[in-house]
Amino acid sequence: MNGILAIALISVRNAIRSKIVMVLLAFLLITLIGLPLTLQGDGTLPGHVRVLIRYTLGLATLILSIATVWASCAAISTEIRDRQIQLVVSKPVRASQIWLGKWLGLMAINVLFLMLCFVSTYAALRGTTTPDRWSDTEIEQLHTEILVAQYKLAPQPRDVREEVQRQYRAARARGEWPEEIPTQEVLPRIERALRTQANSVPAGSSNRWVFNVPHPPPDDRPLILRYRFSLSVMDLDPVSGSWTIGSLQASHRQVETFEQPPRTWHSVAISPDRIEDDGTLTVEFANHADRTVTVIFQPDEGLHLMVYAGGFLMNYFRAGLLILFHLSFLAAVGVTAGAYFSIPVAAMTSFYALLLINAARFIGRIAEGTASGGHGHAHGPHGGWFQDAIHLTSHLVHRGLYAVIRPLESANPLDYLVVGEWIPWTEVGYMFGVKVVLYSGILMVLGAWHMARKEVALPS
Amino acid sequence: MNRIVTVFLPCALGLALLWGAGTLHAPLLEARRVHDLDHAEPLENAPPLVVFSTVALGGFSGIIADILWVRAAQLQMDGQYFELVQLADWITKLQPRFPEGWIYHAWNLSYNVSVMFPRPEDRWRWVRHGIELLRDGGLRYNPAHPTLHRELGWLFQHKLGASMDQAHMFYKLAWALEMERIFDGRGPDYAALAQTPTSRTAVLQVPGMSELLAQLREEGFEPFTYRWPETHRIPVMRNIMRDHEAGSVLLNHIRLRMMVDRYRLIPSRMQEIEAEHGPLDWRLPQAHAIYWAWSGLPHADGFEEQMMSRMIFHSVSEAFQQGGFFYDPDEELFIPGPNPDLLPYAMRALEEALEEFDDDAMRAAHMNFLNNAMIIMYTHHRIDEARNLFDLLHTHYPAEAEDRGFDQYVIELFTDRLDQLGPQGVSAMIDEWLHQSHFWLALGDTDRAAGYDRLARQTWRLYMEPRLHDPDLRERTGLPPISDIRRRALERVRESLTTQTARDRLRNGME
């Protein structure tokens, strides 16, 4: 253990001596001090706080990521280059201990600077939200919608499986879908159409959704119904409508009428006493438009309920942990790459790996596309054995790559913070397991294995 | 020797090259100016972000701007607007000499984003962001770019001045209140501003200023922030200033600095515009549309010059028709209306335009203007001027006036043919005009009250004239006596008034 700590200390010292890392950390300090002073937001307190969190922490995380990758790539490779590694490997320490020592040293720096980032941003946030600068309404809105942790609930999905099958059989019988189009392509389309239909409200009619609220919030914490709708016409004219919230019994209902434009987010505060004894909350939307226009709530994101789950600080802490886990993974990639290659090659390899991870969704789509063969392949003429072989190889490569990087996919924790969305501990635990334990562990094994085999003291 | 070659020689060479580059800098700038390669002066005293982005980032600033632009577009598609002002600010400051960037983002914020908000106050915030982006950013870094002037003028002329946006009345009121605070009336007191010290140092030397400042600071006011305190504290500040000899100097100094530094309104230019286009009400957007078009004209030619000339002509015409301002905070009334004093200026602008573009469309516009102007002058009880307009119309467009008399023609401009309206329609109309007459009387505008009263009486007379000698027709289609209609209208106005001052004015006016 002492050996690991001693190596970690050397790693910290080397990182501090690196001019590039120091320049990046200087940028970090400039960002933390300068950026909050120049931000202007959209003129509202919630807008200002969102921009402050997103850009100060976002830029700080970016700088820390670059510094981490560079310092971690340099951690082993420069010691090999400068032949200082000989002083270490000649001691009774295993290659895995060297790797771990380097990684822990970098993580110590990351923890320190990440704490600095989060504490200074929080101080800037507190400095911004002083009551003399903003109205009481805005401060209240900030504490209700952003400086809070709320979990997001989608309405209970309508069971459309039977209807999908029924419409599929009817469409096939009518010959609407040619036989060569496979069933697995047709069914999702019918299902999508039915889900959109289930979330549409034609003029003069209404539609109802039910939310299951497993943990009702305290009485003084309203639920927030957030929604965004599109129209069946191209214009952006406001539509009049109303929300009826709560039980169908008159005494329990809350009615909110409005005239609002499409394609932007709106919200309604709902008193927790509208929740039924069985934990459900019913909301009904009536379209009062005086023209023929259908209101469409997008099935995935168009309508959800935000329910109070806890305070902002703990959520902020969890966001910090997620970023730290990401940095730990970056450090692992860099240290391992540095064990294999010289600094420039290691840095390029690491950044390329990061690029691939950030493009996970895109790679996933390519894998899906190659799986079905794409439209051209499925329905068009075949291009011969050579093209088929290329296609198969591409599919296997992308699928394999996606299988490797998919577990690393995660939403940006700052996206949660700016909308006051709760970061579940399960997410934090999962990311710890995946990024810190599993992937960093695998990278450690690969790095240590290579170092153990590598002859690092060749005579020049 | 080796050290001299490897260290000192390159350093000396570097210094020599730096010196050479430094000496070439001034001639290069001069050459740029002579050959009109860049209208703007080099950036001086720019914010650190702009200096950093233009100097340190070099060509990379374009790439970063592109990335931010893509992000802005994506956020806008997702309906997330809170970052857009910040992104627009960064994008434009990364490329401050790229006017199209300023123009696009100002337009996007003022037009595309603002309409996504249902509440007028939210919309206004976005419209303001657009105005500020052009005025405080675009024109600061590109002061001689004509399109930036025109776009800014257009925001005032169209977004604030026209009635295309549902919240246009809110914009007008918000802007008017903001300007009212600075001008304390329809516009600046040019003579007083000319005597006002421009610098803080000069203000501090005015006798009695230190005592005044001490008292203001004791009450929690800091005048040199050049911002008004909260609305309810403004009268307190003004009362303190009123009690001091140096108060008016300080107040005018604050006004001047706010006009120049915050709103970029140069008093001498405003005065020139008023000399040319008449006494404008600077609380209304038309005056600002004229100001920005006028400011851009010296830098414009071809299409831009034509567009800005038209903007001035249209805005002067609009200022006559909608450039008056009635605000009664007690009655909570804000009514933009005509400014009859601008008639000669609007007429001149129109005649000049008619000379320049003498075609059917322009003649139709001329005729419409004469008709509208006639209504305005008549309802403001400026009968002689209305009659002159009628004569002018008769001269230019004899077929339009036909054989109708002046009063009948004016009334029919409101009503088309009286006979076609029927007794209920005419009675309702007279009732409405009398209501207007009493309403304006209560608000203290006696000219407009007299104008509407005359309109009501003349309408009653013209309608009843053929019925006076035909009892049967009078019985079937006659009107109640005008005194009865007047009593009803008066009662309605009385009920709607909320302050004793307005009630007193109405009572005195009726006497």
Summary of the model, kept short:
The complex is a heterodimer of chains A (460) and B (511). Chain A is α+β, with helices and mostly antiparallel strands. Chain A is built from 15 helices and eleven strands.
Measured distance between first and last alpha carbons of chain A? 33 Å
How helix-rich are the residues of chain B, as a percent range?
over 70%
> What structural category arises from helix and sheet content of chain B?
mainly alpha
User: What pattern of helices and strands is seen along the backbone of chain B?
Assistant: HHHHHHHHHHHHHHHHEEHHHHHHHHHH
Specify the helix fraction band of chain A.
Answer: 55-70%
Walkthrough of the structure:
With 460 residues, chain A is an alpha+beta fold. Chain A has two domains: 2-146 and 313-453, no CATH class; 161-311, Jelly Rolls (Sandwich). Helices cover 59% and strands 13% of the residues of chain A. Chain A contains 15 helices and eleven strands. Chain A has helices at 2-17, 19-38, 45-81, 85-89, 95-128, 136-145, 161-174, 183-198, 312-340, 343-358, 360-372, 374-379, 384-405, 413-418, 425-453; strands at 148-153, 200-201, 206-212, 223-227, 229-231, 239-245, 254-260, 266-270, 280-287, 295-297, 303-311. In chain A, the strands form three sheets. A four-stranded antiparallel sheet of chain A has the order 1-11-4-8. A four-stranded antiparallel sheet of chain A has the order 3-9-6-7, with no helix packed on it. In chain A, strand 6 (239-245) and strand 7 form a beta hairpin. Among the domains of chain B are: 48-143; 173-309, no CATH class; 417-510. Helix content of chain B is 72%, strand content 2%. Chain B has helices at residues 2-34, 48-56, 60-77, 84-94, 99-113, 120-141, 146-160, 168-183, 190-194, 200-204, 209-218, 234-242, 247-262, 267-277, 285-296, 302-322, 343-356, 360-379, 383-396, 398-401, 406-415, 418-442, 446-464, 471-477, 482-496, 500-510, and strands at residues 324-328, 333-337. In chain B, helix 7 (146-160) runs antiparallel to helix 15 (285-296), helix 7 (146-160) runs parallel beside helix 16 (302-322) and helix 17 runs antiparallel to helix 18. The radius of gyration of chain B is 30 Å and the shape is elongated. The interface between A and B is medium-sized, with 25 and 21 residues.
